[in-house]
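Thread: sanity check for a docking pose with zinc ion

Original post by kr_44:
Hi all, I'm comparing my docking run against an independent structure prediction. Below are the sequence and the ligand SMILES. Could someone generate the full complex and paste the structure tokens? I mainly care about where the ligand ends up relative to the chain.
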Amino acid sequence: MRGSTWGFDQLLGQEKNIEVIKKSISKGTLAHALLITGPPGSGKSSLALLIAQALNCVQKTEAPCEACLSCRKIKEGNHADVAVVEPEERSIKIDPLREVKKRFIYYPQEQGTRVCLIEDAHCLTPAAAAALLKIVEEPPDKLVFLLTTPYPSRLPSTILSRCQHYLMQRVDDIEMEEYLREISPGAAESEIALAKNLSEGLPGRARNIILNEVWGERREIVYNVGEKLLSPEISERELLEEAKRWVEREDLAQLLEMLSHYFKDGMIWKLSKDSSQLFDKDLHEFWMKYKIDAMNLKSCLELINDTRKMLLTNVNKLLAVENLFLQIRGRIFNV
Ligand SMILES: [Zn+2]
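Reply from moderator J.T.:
Ran it for you. Here is the predicted complex with zinc ion included:
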């Protein structure tokens, strides 16, 4: 969300969704169950909270004012008519649903629209999903369910078919750069550009990257190992030690993702000599130093991406990363 704007406008790239939602709210045709889908970091929860605010704002306009008591209470998470259900240990059991039923159906309140926000709705257990379905099949007046999930296909089709669907849109490059400059005024242009490229159009992800100090550290680790992989004087033993250090970290997946961008940049630079096409524009000076064939870099990139896929399954992580580093070495020096 943006700091200096308010209401629905603070959501990036969601103009189409918001137009439809505003219209439904002003006409009173909003469905009893909404499903908001999109990858992590796309702003699903922010949109859901804004809808809850809009439905209860004392200004009674189609967009929340964010200043009235109702809007503020919803933002702080203590509005009597808004319940938030979240997974506990990756599952949403039936109890919180029963609680909602008790709170909103047996004891209805007069004013406003009651909202039940179910975060990561794919975590509903079958019993909880059945309980939800029962309510949604015969929805009481002035009760709206807002479900968010990155994985809609994991929800029962009976629930999917009763929801109005909203797919979060990715933010375009220009808007994302503006956003990054706004939340991180001190960042260098090259950092902004890299964060934008890594964000894949997801504002939450962009925010994490630019505001996260770990990220700078991660970049250093990856570039350091990248350079070692390209340097024949570094021994295999040293590479294996690096592999061990990587596997011991919790952000192995992110390190490998960044390593893949690193090699991709090398390949693009070798092919195009155009630094504007690079993920990290600072890298072109680095790649200029190395006389490595673009096709070798391409083959390294494939190795990295294969390993990333492999790590999503139940493989021995250490072996996989050790293998990766040694194979990269082999591809680069054709050994
Ligand atoms: Zn308000």
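Residues 252-272 form the longest helix (21 residues). Hope that helps with the comparison, let us know if your pose agrees.
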